[in-house]
Amino acid sequence: MRAQGGFSYVVVMFLVAISAVVAVRALENTLVTEQRNKEDELLWRGMAYLKAISQYYQNSPGAAKGYPVELKDLLHDTRLVRPTRPLRKLYRDPMTEAEWAVLRDEGGAVIGVYSTSQTRPIKRAGFPPELQHFMNAQHYSDWKFVFKPK
Q1: Containing H/E element for 41?
Q2: What distance in Å separates the CA atoms of residue 5 and residue 24, rounded to the nearest whole number?
């Protein structure tokens, strides 16, 4: 009976080690899934801003087209006889939970937005045609949602 005295201890230690490995793998999978969800939300919100800036520009009255001066101008466009709402609300950057960084043209008007996150993206390919420049970006801050008229 004495020859088997430490066997139970070795089995318990082995089970603890296996449990620790499984827990670490589960945590890694959870973190990757969370980052993928935030990445999808970043793409959706960025495209919402891109479409809103495009709509604001395209619906400019008269021959001269113009960009919004501030992001809040996208919430209620009163330049037309019938006011429009290119964007329902100002979304926050899902990666940093802060305000978006704003890209401006030479006149100071808003032409796009981007995240300030320096995290490396998981998604590297498979973007829609208007976002092909996101391929192989090093950081989420390289994903710039900019409206350029054709």
Answers
A1: helix 7-58
A2: 31
